[in-house]
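Narrative summary of target 7.
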Amino acid sequence: MTHLTDSSQLSTEPQATDSVQPSAPKSSIESPPTDSVQPLVAKSSTEPQQTNSVQPPAPKSSIESPPTDSVQPPAPKSSTESQPNDSAQPPAPKSSSHRWLWLLLGTIAIAGTGAGIWYGFFRPKNNNLIPFSGRIEGYETDVSTKGSGRVKEVTVREGATVKKGQLLVRLDDDEVQSELLATKSTVDAAKQREATARLQISVLNSQVADTKLNLKQSEGDTIGKVAEAEALVSTAQAALKQEQARVAEARALLKQTKVDRDRFVNLANLGAETRQRADLAQTAFETAQAMLESRQAGVEVARNAIAIAQGKLTQAQTTALNPDRQETNIGRLQTQVNQAKVALLGAQADVKTAQANQQLIQSRLNNLTVKSPIAGIVTTRSVEPGTVVLPSRPLLRIVDMKQVYMRGFIPGGQIARIRVGQLTKVYLDSDPKHEHPLNAKVISIDAKASFTPENIYFQKDRVEQVFGVKLSFDKPGSFVKPGMPVDAEILLKK
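Modeled conformation, tokenized:
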């Protein structure tokens, strides 16, 4: 076997080396040349013909025969490598089937993409619908105070739900409360003077009537008039005692308020108490003083009533004996009645003035509290306790959730198809499949066109003008809130 191998190499190497070297690249690329290499090694008689036909420079191979001795070992290696190639040839159809499978999948993917693009850009459109987008907005109400002062309390924050009439902000009202207390005392004193004047007029009118009646009565009626006058005197004396007891109570209250006033004033001067507390004590003292004066006036009225009753008793006793004197008493009593009426008018004017002042201070006190004008949700809070505020400064902002609406924009080319009152369907982002639309209708269309967004600064964006459209909801629900982006479709009449 060794000798056979050498002879075959001697007869073939000068020609095989020239033929193998150029054909090696082809055998690495194409499988058919590998089949032609195998007979090249087995059959030496055919190789000279192939080398003469393929390689003209045969003399070069004969000159370089010594290098062929170094090339001889790779010759059997190439023959041995051809065997794995022969064994790898059966999987060739499998790679071809894989290539056809990938080609089929690629064709399906390209067809699906093309169908999607066609459906997105060239699908038939519903001409009875105009789709557009926008966002939810609401009617906002700024809440402010009519009075000025320092904020004492703010009862709500952003996002809070408030009811109509709910207390929102309270300002410091200690000073106004003191003024209101003093005014109430003034009103009470004026009313007391009015009541005294009315009582005096009533008593005088009664005396006048009795005196006139006594002139017509006979001398036998004198005894009955005297008894009646005595009863009137007793009633007036009882009223005097009652008024004197009330005066004693007022004096005790005045004394106590004076002590409190002096104590708080001294403490305020020493810095141990606030000046405001001292002012309150002074107000209480003045109120007690006014009350004492009013009750002292009541004592004087009771004493006058006693004097009148006693005069009436004397008159009854002397009526029968001196009728002329009774006429004089009637004139005097009538003068007193007129004077009492003038005093009554003055007291009534004082009452009205004091009540008007009281109402003014009460109005100031009411202006120091801010209540919600509507029911809704607080969106902005711009004040904190301790802040000094002025009238008409916005403190809170409230949105009425029952009056929310959608604001969107429609291109100018489609606005001619839009009418107020057209029905629409509104879709929230929380409903991406558009399964639960909200019913709405067009309530207003802008009279002028604008750009969207409205604050455009670049010329390239100022291409298409749009018209703003506002939609109102039939039943928006509590989940529809201002600022939410939404989509809508306007239903056109067929």
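The chain has three domains: 2-89, 174-339, 400-491.
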